[in-house]
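Hi L.,

You mentioned the student needs an example of a multi-chain input paired with its predicted structure. This one should do, with 619 residues in total across all chains.
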Amino acid sequence: MDHPGQLVQYVLTGLSNGAIYALIGFGFAIIHNATGILNFAQGEFVMLGGMFTIFILSFLNLPLIPAIMLAIIFSTLVGILFERLAIRPLKNVKPLSLVIITIGASIFIRGAAMLIWGKDTHALPAFSGSNPLYVYGATIMPQHLWIFGITIMIIIANKLFFSYSILGKAMRACAYNAHAASLVGIDVKIMVLLSFMVSSAIGSMAGIIIAPLTMTSYDVGIMLGIKGFCAVIIGGMSSGLGTVLGGLLLGLLESLGAGYISASYKDAIAFIILLLILFIRPEGLFKQKATQRV
Amino acid sequence: MIKEKRQILIFTLFALIVLLAPLFLKGSYFLNVLVFIGINTLLAVALNLLLGYAGQISLGHAAFFGLGAYVSGILTTRFPVDPWMALLAAALCAALLAFVIGFPILKLKGHYLAMATLGFGIIMYIFFNETVDLTGGPSGLSGIPNLRLGQLIFDNDRNNYYLVWVITLGVMLLSINLSQSRIGRALRAINDSEVAARVMGVNARILKVQIFTISAFVSAIAGSLYAHTMTFISPTSFGFNFSVELLTMIIIGGLGSMYGSFLGAAILTMLPEFLRVFRDFDIVIYGLMLILITMFMPKGLIGGLEALFKIVINKIKGGAQNVKR
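Structure written out for the whole complex:
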């Protein structure tokens, strides 16, 4: 430990990565709660967000904000196509088949991205310049602030949507009991489609705000996807505070581990945490059950 | 032992074709491809034991393949260990690892099992890459000696062909036997409904770990054979993509069918060899195949062929009946 600034730096990096993991985790939770499916293609939407934005910026020469909006719309369209073509036609399938189909979709999207955009790593320009700010000897890029700001906004919007809007309540009703929901007049199919839309939109947003910091390429989806899954597992499969804490915890452990233990094992740290959580407490760290048990 | 006569006949026929094939094949390139098909068939059979028989998915099987290759490679290049002993050590190592992680990992079901095995595979891949002193890291490990039996050295395609295929055929035979034994029926029961299997007195927990261990053991043998025939290994062969490729092989071929494993392995090994275009499109096509086969042909090509065969038979019989009338 050379100077205290370094610790602050690791914490900041960890928190901003963690915020991204939490957003990706939300995507998992929304689809899982609506359909019982664990969408292995979730990470690909994160990749699509970043790649679409870069593509739109360079080929259509649009300003940043419309480009981002268009990228989110494109990614959501891919999410809709995925649901309509590969998920909805299925009837009474085993979970195993769903795992295989979402994995198939995941590598299909990744492969298509590779064919269209090549194997190069691309950088998205930072949203508001790259003049660093200095806090306690640590460097913050303005992009970090964007990440924190946008993540907090999405968390609040998510909470408002699911707690107060009719649509959000209908989706929660489906998650609770799809059959009962259909009896009171909720169109379950639409809700499932909607869950895919919301989750691909949130996923692509995560991919867009992280891309200026970490660069992006056709194959970033798998790592980000699994880390998002790790966050949502720690949070007990909810799209709420648990997953946010899970993401931040994972981001911090990963960043501190990379800083003080070994940078080359950074990814391994995340996966070891994932396995430990799955082995020891698959219901999540913050579930009520856990407090009752003690 | 195999009880049905038809099964014995099919296997004998298959084995004969495989063992006699080199006599009719000219040119070592094709034999070389067939060696790889053999190794991939062995891996597909191993994964099929777990997924096709017991219904437990693994997205990290490339890790056991890699572990086998690396244990064998490291023991024979850095220590004066006989390649056969290295092969045995590699298989035991993978089996031990599978046994240890099997208990916690196989408690998980469906999606969670898939994620956990995926995580395990990636952790192993990171270790293959990062323990440079041991594995040579990303630049790989070279100079692995060939296997030998007395004067016979397995250093050319023809010898390798027999080496790999004799082992693969042996494992296939054992696997077919297993499916018709008490254990095979218990595994199928777990596949259909684990709760029901437990109620019937099947010790599902132990049995799942056992089949996982056997599957890892066989995968590591494949890895060791790969290391000793290629004489060079590097981590890229043992990553997540290869785990998915193995999954694609058995889904295409047919879950639970050993001949399906061969068919899937053969198709996925040959496509990139003979279709250059395929090399750029491979993961797109794998993805599409996984989706389409699972949606429309859940029993794979073998299942499809059997259905077709039955339709043809029925047509012929039906035709005969019509004539009688």
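You could point out the following to them. Chain B touches chain A through 44 residues (CB under 8 Å). Chain B has a mean pLDDT of 88.

Best wishes,
N.
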